[in-house]
From TrEMBL:
<dbReference type="InterPro" id="IPR018490">
    <property type="entry name" value="cNMP-bd_dom_sf"/>
</dbReference>
<keyword id="KW-0560">Oxidoreductase</keyword>
<dbReference type="InterPro" id="IPR023753">
    <property type="entry name" value="FAD/NAD-binding_dom"/>
</dbReference>
<dbReference type="Pfam" id="PF00027">
    <property type="entry name" value="cNMP_binding"/>
</dbReference>
<dbReference type="InterPro" id="IPR036188">
    <property type="entry name" value="FAD/NAD-bd_sf"/>
</dbReference>
<dbReference type="InterPro" id="IPR014710">
    <property type="entry name" value="RmlC-like_jellyroll"/>
</dbReference>
<dbReference type="GO" id="GO:0016491">
    <property type="term" value="F:oxidoreductase activity"/>
</dbReference>
<feature type="domain" description="Cyclic nucleotide-binding">
    <location>
        <begin position="19"/>
        <end position="139"/>
    </location>
</feature>
<dbReference type="InterPro" id="IPR000595">
    <property type="entry name" value="cNMP-bd_dom"/>
</dbReference>
<keyword id="KW-0285">Flavoprotein</keyword>
<protein>
    <recommendedName>
        <fullName>Thioredoxin reductase</fullName>
    </recommendedName>
</protein>
<dbReference type="Pfam" id="PF07992">
    <property type="entry name" value="Pyr_redox_2"/>
</dbReference>
<dbReference type="InterPro" id="IPR050097">
    <property type="entry name" value="Ferredoxin-NADP_redctase_2"/>
</dbReference>
Amino acid sequence: MASADPLITEDPYARTAQVYPRLSDEMMDRVRNYGEEEAVAAGQVLFRRGDRRADFFVVVQGEIAIIRQDDQGADELLVTHQAHQFTGELDQVSERALLVEGRSTGPGRVIRVHHDDLARLMSSEPDIGELIMRAFILRRMGFLYHAQAGVLLIGDPNDGDTQRLERFIIRNSYPLRTVDPQTDPAAAQLMEVFAVGAGDLPVVISPDRSVLSNPGLPELADHLGLTERFDPDEVWDVVVVGAGPAGLAAATYAASEGLSTAVIEALAPGGQAGTSSKIENYLGFPTGISGQALAGRALIQAQKFGARMAISRGAVALDCGVHPFHIRLEDDQIVQARAVVVATGAHYRKLDVPDYARFEGHGIHYAATAMEAKLCSGLDVVVVGGGNSAGQAAMYLSRHVGHVHMLVRGPGLSETMSDYLVQRIQRSPRITLYPHTEVTQLEGDRLLSGVAWTDRRTGQTTRIPAHALFVMIGARPNTEWVADCLALDDSGFVVTCLRPGQTPDLRPGASAYETERAGIYAVGDVRSGSVKRVAAGVGEGSVVVQAIHAYLASLGRD
């Protein structure tokens, strides 16, 4: 079977002993210390799809059936947990809505561990915790691989809104099955069953048979149970704004050290790094790792230690004139924080070319993942940019498309790209580099069909048929929401105590990542003078927690 998630190349269910492990008698005795043993009746529902903060169950006697609903709304048995096996997957360690239902098949006995006690169990019993966490991860991977317990997306794969929804669902590691109404034989029947017309597309259909026609991302996130609302009266020790590598590192270290931690993310974990097809120079991964996989692992770590996350809720304003600080979100939620970590990163700049906006979502892309590669299979594409992201995109695409035409404004790549990527690009017969060039014209009706570029030295213009343009040029910081509160440099990046070319602030306890406002820090790509690398962002995010501890101690809370 072909994977519904191209990042997962082997069926996780094949690892049966790890996906559905059995606890030993000695482990069962230890688990009892964190829960209560109770009887269950035949047909008793222990948890339902959509539940949050569900309890964790270990079977003592009897069986628990795990059930999902298919496209027709009928129950489908996924697996049956037997004695000494346990329920749950990754939603068990977060506040996300569950994807499946658990039901006793007959009379039996279980150990019920309440949601709040599961984290204590996993932390206090590390061998059991490791066994549980590995099973949770593999079960979610199985859902993704087989497109189980998730949603159905019907829409033209070349449509910008279809791509927007698919990208959001995939990047948030939610199971998805896509249906192309033009080529999939099942499309007509599905559209008839759910009363969907061509004008309604794209639509997202969930197992409860709800149909969302071209929803906004906040609406979709709420419907899928991906996000959560925070109590407006709750004051967090630290709120991390942005879930890229730097933000996730800060959240993981803060939560693991006992700080109440919330993470606010406008789109999906990973930031720009999350769109990278493969990162090969990140320490500890000699064969490389995709940005999405790295971000997914980091998110699980943060949630394992108790960090809470709001997805698809961008921050729009920071009030630093009050303490606790107030962060206002897009939906007007107010989140209160004793300390704030600004980790909102940056986004790629756009080209100044006629008709550019018309082709965004219809041939212009800012990421090169499996989704985009599938759209461009066998076709020529153009990549604009000379940094590592552009190099990784070119190499990845070269394995899937007809030919990659790579454009850079400068004389070459050596000054802006890691040498290992430069060497590969130069050796690849499927990549051609064009120095001193810039895109000057885009062609096409509804979809991009051609790209022209001009050599700035000679004035010569080259025009090719191309159905995709990947733009990865420079970066603009995501700092509009803090502009009224924090000092920014001339390019809009947040200025911290360690300012480029200047003497560091030598105040006692001063941090290189503290802004002009005590208690507010900036890490990763959003920080002025930072090194724009994943490892650097992770380092900054982990180190800043020490300064947060010192700051909270000065307030009398640590």
